Amino acid sequence: MHEHTPGLRERKKRRQYQVISDTAITLFLAKGFDRVSVAEIAAAAEVSKPTLFRYFPAKEDLALHRFADHEDESARVVAGRPGGTGPLQALLGHLLDGLVRRDPVTGLSDHPQVLAFHRLLYGTPSLVARMAGYQQRSEAALAAALGGGIEGALGAGQVIAVLRVLALENWRRVAAGESADDVYPDAVAAAELAFGRLRTGLPDEPGEAQ
Question: DNA-binding region at which residues (predicted)?
């Protein structure tokens, strides 16, 4: 009978985590990140401030939990890839699947709430700075999955940079008014180009750099 208790406790904790973060994001989108206090969020979510800080150590984390959930995603894709599949092949396949699903992490989502959230994120310096920490942890996890050492670190640095550049370009176009469906073919082509470059390296022919 007691064996189910930890699972139930974990689910309850997860629900609380979700409620607090969703409440915070709703307030941030309505008023702006800097105009909402932690006390206001705690009151709206019906928890105490100490409880809120147990779940989210900093105010910025309330907005960024969606990125925290993806922190070790690339590492998991590499570690869990089928036999005979290379790391880059697995990562590209995962990205292409995300583009098909219009996963917000790929930047290719024109859902109004996602667009509003991304505007909040990219328009708030403290959130941009905090997100850099998530990306560093994501890079470190991927480096370990790629075997560690300088080889793993170099590979992870390049992959994480490519994913960031691709997502920003998709988001920039969608935020400017293009539909996700219109951007999709270019997003796929850019992903394939980027991972092709990761496989073969940057061109270094005389006269190519302008």
Answer: 37-56
